[in-house]
Amino acid sequence: GQQVMQIPQYQHVQEGEDFTTYCNSSTTLSNIQWYKQRPGGHPVFLIQLVKSGEVKKQKRLTFQFGEAKKNSSLHITATQTTDVGTYFCAGPKDSGTYKYIFGTGTRLKVLA
Amino acid sequence: DSGVTQTPKHLITATGQRVTLRCSPRSGDLSVYWYQQSLDQGLQFLIQYYNGEERAKGNILERFSAQQFPDLHSELNLSSLELGDSALYFCASSGKTTEAFFGQGTRLTVV
């Protein structure tokens, strides 16, 4: 079945360092979403990418959708302690479906 | 606050028992999703309802069932509970876009 893998599983960085998490799907995705889950919290929607090669920025966060629409990345510049949490990507199982398969997640810890 | 309400927040029950988790979606959202998140695990899609009808099914066990009522709230019923069912259960809702808004979750502990 469809799988969505993320690497790394865990990442510890010093505050001010950059961070990148990568998301890889076994199948082509019509779109990809990113969510952030703070420790003890619930997933919060960050962004959705739709177009091949699309790049979107939200302040210090840069999201990219691969040309083949099978991979994506989230890059955080100059991490802050508020960036702590687990970052999930999610892609629809089939085009047009609302059934999203979540990635395995990358847990980010930021050391002050 | 996402606007999605889940009750109860915590639930402790014994093996073999049956529990019901409740979810009220954001005002106007017709879609409700249920996810299971085990310790250190990702989010596993269980089931989706749209305006009262089942729309998509994931890896939901036969012991689990869900429904969405005319007022759009949803309930997830878990029966014959096993220790391995202990997890966080999230409900999410969406409207015209596929952006999902998650509730705070119900932490189920089976002892």
What do you see in this structure?
The complex is a heterodimer of chains A (112) and B (111). Chain A contains no helices and eleven strands. Chain A has 112 residues and is an all-beta fold. Chain B is mostly beta strands and 111 residues long. Helices cover 0% and strands 52% of the residues of chain B. In chain B, strands 2, 4, 5, 6, 9, 10 and 11 form a seven-stranded mixed sheet that branches. Chain B is globular. Chain B starts with a strand and ends with a strand. The chains are: A mainly beta (112), B mainly beta (111). At the A-B interface, strand 5, strand 9 and strand 10 of A face strand 4, strand 5, strand 9 and strand 10 of B.
Task: Give structural attributes.
heterodimer; A: 112 residues; mainly beta; six-stranded mixed sheet; five-stranded antiparallel sheet; 11 strands; 0% helix; B: 111 residues; seven-stranded mixed sheet; globular
Largest sheet of chain B: 7 strands, mixed
Element-level helix/strand string of chain A: EEEEEEEEEEE
Uncertain regions of chain A: pLDDT < 50 for 5+ in a row? none
Count of helices of chain A? 0
Number of strands of chain A: 11
SSE run of chain B: EEEEEEEEEEE
What form of chain B results from the Cα inertia axes?
A: globular
Instruction: Report the end-to-end length of chain B measured between terminal Cα atoms.
Output: 31 Å
> Which secondary-structure class do the elements of chain B indicate?
mainly beta
Give the CA-CA distance, first to last residue of chain A.
Answer: 40 Å
Number of strands of chain B: 11
Alpha plus pi helix count of chain B? 0
**pLDDT < 50 stretches of chain B:** none
Assembly type of the chains comes to heterodimer
On the 0 to 100 scale, the average pLDDT of chain B is 94
> What is the global morphology of chain A?
globular
